[in-house]
Design brief:
By secondary structure, the chain is α+β, with helices and mostly antiparallel strands. The protein has helices at about 5-20, 25-30, 110-125, 130-140, and strands at about 25, 45-50, 60-65, 75-80, 85-90, 95-100, 105-110.
């Protein structure tokens, strides 16, 4: 397993140790569930749902961020001088999650239907990464990204 993915998994274990009813979703949650999105997850955020905001403290190694989109809170964990993980936290009283063993550790993982709901929501908003993730889930292959775009030369063929 890639060291950078292991940093993310370690961060999940620490967070879930501190907040035992929290659960991870998003692309990392799908990876723990065994879903291969056919792309690198090194830059993936951790999407975490927690049932109530109860003293999430910055001195536990998390640094507050302001770009947390539709999540309630955004944090950043610095793993090394040049590698960090963004954590987006949504406060929702959704106690429903599965405990899944992955590489010898147990993780609280959001229900598959919930992860796919959010992935579809972002895909519907035009986020290509999420559109391609859904294609990869459905077909087992990821659409290829163009390496270059050739301008139309005006010819009718």
């Amino acid at each position: 397993m890639n060291d950078k993915i292991e940093y993310k998994l370690e961060a999940i274990r620490k967070f879930q140790s501190d907040y035992p009813t929290s659960h991870v979703g998003g692309s990392i949650g799908l990876m723990i569930r065994g879903v291969d999105l056919k792309r690198s997850l090194i830059t993936s955020d951790l999407d975490i749902t927690i049932d109530e905001y109860d003293h999430i403290i910055k001195d536990n190694g998390m640094e507050a961020r302001s770009d947390n989109c539709d999540f309630d809170f955004g944090y950043r964990i610095n793993h090394t001088d040049n590698f960090y993980t963004k954590i987006d936290i949504r406060i929702t009283p959704e106690p429903s999650f599965d405990v899944i063993e992955f590489n010898g550790y147990n993780y609280n993982v959001s229900k598959l239907r919930d992860i796919l709901f959010w992935k579809q929501k972002y895909a519907n908003k035009g986020v290509v990464k999420h559109q391609n993730d859904l294609i990869a889930i459905k077909t087992g292959a990821r659409p290829l990204e163009p390496v270059a775009t050739i301008e139309d030369d005006g010819l009718p063929f």
